[in-house]
Specification:
It is a single chain. Strand 6, helix 4 and strand 7 form a beta-alpha-beta unit. Helix 1 crosses helix 11, helix 7 runs parallel beside helix 8 and helix 12 runs antiparallel to helix 13. Strands 3, 4, 5, 6, 7, 8, 9, 10 and 11 form a 9-stranded parallel sheet that branches. A two-stranded antiparallel ribbon has the order 1-2. The chain is built from 14 helices and 11 strands. It has 330 residues and is α/β, with parallel strands linked by helices. The protein starts with a strand and ends with a helix. It has 2 domains: 242 residues, Alpha-Beta Barrel (TIM Barrel); 76 residues. The chain binds flavin mononucleotide. The site of flavin mononucleotide has 22 residues, from loops.
Length: 330
């Protein structure tokens, strides 16, 4: 098994879970780690929110052992706020601090944060230096291919971030303008790999063991990071991990998918507390709805997930769906 090192943090060279706001929360990260994700990153955290003592923002910073090695990801446009935010993050003992320079959402880019920083290399470098000056842990940067068709600057930008002190660069092979449409450009990841000496994390459109191996092969990246293909599918990490560990792998049965879905819901319930069952179940609905994708009756299952209000509802739905599968296979 190969490992890479980001600063002093040793990470298995398999596949990492991408940061995903409103999806890859603590329960999700714990689950994916258990299934073999080698590294996790928090949802994006506002530097200003942290500095102004926003309780909800601070809750995003908790790092549990089940999620490590884990980065806390912060975003903002002001080096001083980012520095202060990194200091606050350090109290939560992350393994790494990651700076978001890739978010395309208007609320973020209109404040000159996220991928807007790719239009202002000098400011982005100041931010890296400021965060680095107070973080006793490695500092990484997550970028995109560029801002738009006219500004495809990931390779030069990554070099500047390395010079400012970044210990690794994650690259999503789309421009800000593309948001999530079109195909991710892996060639740009290769170009970034060739322009810096620190580890490069390749990201965009990995949805199988085969595409994970292809990303390693075609880009030379040091680590692969997966986002959307993990929806209802932590098994992708088990498949990739088994491959690198030389272990046999068999895809999950319907029963196993259902067990893991229920386990995922229990993780959400345990994070939010039994007294918050209603809130937890609201949160669980979208996750549950993803687990049966591609199976007979999946559309009906998905629709029913949006009516889940209690854990018992989920148990009943699971039984009903498994019954349907049995009848279908007769
Ligand atoms: C729902 C959602 C939320 C996301 N939130 C974040 C985020 O908080 N921080 C970040 O750097 N990227 C975020 N991303 C981008 C992903 O980390 C990743 O770069 C992108 O989805 C491409 O990878 P994929 O093709 O494997 O999904 C988000 C993506 C999605 C779909």
């Amino acid at each position: 098994m190969e490992y890479l090192k980001i600063g002093n943090v040793k990470i298995k060279k398999t596949a990492a879970l991408a940061p995903m706001a409103s999806v890859a929360d603590r329960s999700y990260r714990i689950l994916c780690r258990e299934y073999g994700a080698c590294y996790t990153v928090s949802e994006l955290i506002s530097a200003k929110g942290l500095c102004y003592n926003d309780k909800k923002t601070a809750e995003l910073c908790t790092v549990t052992n089940g999620e490590r090695p884990m980065a806390l990801q912060i975003f903002g446009d002001d080096p001083e706020f980012m520095k202060k935010a990194a200091e606050i993050c350090m109290k939560y003992e992350p393994d790494i601090i990651d700076i978001n320079m890739g978010c395309p959402v208007p609320k973020v880019v209109n404040n000159n944060s996220g991928s807007a920083l790719m239009k202002d290399t000098a400011r982005a470098a100041e931010i890296v230096k400021a965060v680095k000056s107070v973080s006793g842990v490695p500092v990484t940067v997550k970028i995109r291919k560029g801002w738009d068709k006219a500004l495809v600057n990931a390779a030069e930008f990554a070099k500047a971030m390395e010079q400012a002190g970044a210990d690794a660069i994650a690259v999503h092979g789309r421009t800000k303008d593309q948001m999530y449409s079109g195909k991710a450009d892996w060639d740009i990841i290769k170009q970034v790999r060739e322009s810096v000496s620190v580890p490069v994390i390749g990201n965009g459109d990995i949805d199988s063991l085969e595409s994970c191996l292809a990303m390693y092969e075609q880009t030379g990246c040091d680590l692969v990071m997966i986002g959307r293909a993990t929806y209802g599918n932590p098994f992708i990490f088990r498949e990739i991990d088994s491959y690198f560990e030389n272990l046999p792998y068999s895809p999950p049965s319907v029963e196993e998918r259902m067990e893991v879905m229920l386990y995922h819901i229990r993780l959400i319930l345990s994070q939010l507390g039994k007294e918050n069952e209603e809130k937890a179940m609201k949160e669980a609905r979208k996750h549950a709805s993803w687990y049966m994708k591609g199976l007979y009756g999946a559309a009906g299952f998905r629709a029913k997930c949006y009516g889940l209000s209690t854990y018992d509802d989920a148990l009943r739905l699971a039984e009903e769906f498994l019954e349907l599968q049995k009848r279908q296979s007769l």
